[in-house]
Amino acid sequence: MTALISLSRAIDRVNELIGKAVAWLILASIVISATNAVSRKAFSLSSNAWLEAQWYLFSAAFLLASAWTLMSNEHVRVDLLYSRMKRRGQIYVDIIGTVLFLLPFCVIVVWLSWPVFMAKLASGETSNNTGGLVLWPAWMLIPIGYTSLGLQGISELIKRIAWLRGDLPDPVLVADADAAEL
């Protein structure tokens, strides 16, 4: 179990670094959006490339930070019953949800998006918009984002099993404490 806990910590570190780095892409997206809006209104100048760059940056932030969001326990959860359960029951729900839903979904998305990404990369296809950007970087974000989310799911699974075995403190309380420090 020690090796798995070390793997979990390594996955957490990588996804936290990626998440914190790509969070800055939101600021870049806002700056591009504001600059484009001002240049369009003040000078009647606009660029599809800048609009698409803004979209790419937002997509990158969303897809690449999703693993960090899961690790930080900041993901959306519908907890009509979950919040009424004892902690042990919540952990079992997390494990079942991860194994039956999160991990298979991540595998399917990566499996289906990889050939599309490779085709876009090979063709050098660009946006249909005049002055638009190449498409492969946006498509590349999908398998990368879902791979990191799947890896984080494995990390969360390891932490929950370790908690059940008494090898680690409660992973949710640890994530909440870490988030409070930010």
From TrEMBL:
Residues 31-161 form the Tripartite ATP-independent periplasmic transporters DctQ component domain. The chain crosses the membrane at residues 21-38, 53-71, 91-114, 134-155. InterPro entries: DctQ, TRAP_DctQ. The keyword Protease does not apply. Keywords: Cell inner membrane, Cell membrane, Membrane, Plasmid, Transmembrane, Transmembrane helix, Transport. It is a multi-pass membrane protein. Pfam families: DctQ (PF04290). The keyword ATP-binding does not apply. It is found in: Cell inner membrane. Part of the tripartite ATP-independent periplasmic (TRAP) transport system. The complex comprises the extracytoplasmic solute receptor protein and the two transmembrane proteins. Belongs to the TRAP transporter small permease family. This is TRAP transporter small permease protein. It comes from Paracoccus methylovorus.
